[in-house]
Amino acid sequence: MNWDAKVEKVFIHILRSSCCIFLVSLCGCGREVTDDFIPIVSFAPIELNLSLPANNNLQLDGGSRALSGGVRGIIVYRINASTYAAYERNCSYRPNEACATVDVHSSGLFMTDACCGSNFSFTDGTPTGGPAWRSLNRYRTQVSGLTLTITDEVIN
């Protein structure tokens, strides 16, 4: 192989490598780990009487209920008789988009955002699928007798 052919071969290899790197950076194959700040809104403590019919779902482990409050609402989930989790319904992925709202999946086994396709665990609010990479904001809860209190203190 003569000198010109070797130079041409090296040039083509460099050109192909550069094009591949450019295309990968253009398309973005990884998760987007820099998106908007998750909003936080203060609200007065929410007190739920767990014996009321409106809270029947919260009388069984694995039960949930959506409430108003927070940025886009709150999902309350019963882990056990003395432990409840309260999550902000504002999705953690691109939270300022109009449709970034989390709901309980129809199976009742996890939370989901139909807008971006992210799924979240009831156990700790961590993402289990989709593009979200941050947990949902979790609010402090306290049980005293038959009263569940949810405060605006974010605990994660």
Structure commentary:
This protein has one helix at 3-27, and strands at 46-49, 64-67, 74-80, 83-88, 103-104, 111-113, 118-120, 127-129, 138-144, 147-154. Strand 9 and strand 10 (147-154) form a beta hairpin. Residues 17-30 have low confidence and may be disordered. The chain has a domain at 46-154: Rieske Iron-sulfur Protein (3-layer Sandwich), CATH 2.102.10.10. It has 156 residues and is an alpha+beta fold. The N and C termini lie far apart (64 Å). The radius of gyration is 23 Å and the shape is globular. Strands 1-10-9-4-3-2 form a 6-stranded antiparallel β-sheet, with no helix packed on it. The chain has a 4-stranded antiparallel β-sheet with strand order 5-6-7-8, with no helix packed on it.
Fourth-level CATH superfamily of the domain at 46-154: Rieske [2Fe-2S] iron-sulphur domain
Q: Report the major sheet.
A: 6 strands, antiparallel
Give unreliable regions as ranges.
Answer: 17-30
By CATH, the architecture of the domain at 46-154 is named 3-layer Sandwich
The CATH topology of the domain at 46-154 is what? Rieske Iron-sulfur Protein
Average pLDDT, rounded to a whole number, is 85
Q: Structural class given helices, strands, pairing?
A: alpha+beta
Beta-strand share of residues? 25-35%
CATH level-1 class of the domain at 46-154: Mainly Beta
Q: Strand order within the widest sheet?
A: 1-10-9-4-3-2
Number of helices: 1
**Total strands:** 10
Cα gyration radius (Å):
23 Å
Order of helices and strands: HEEEEEEEEEE
Q: Tell me, what's the shape?
A: globular
Assign a percent range to the helix content: 10-25%
Distance between the termini: 64 Å
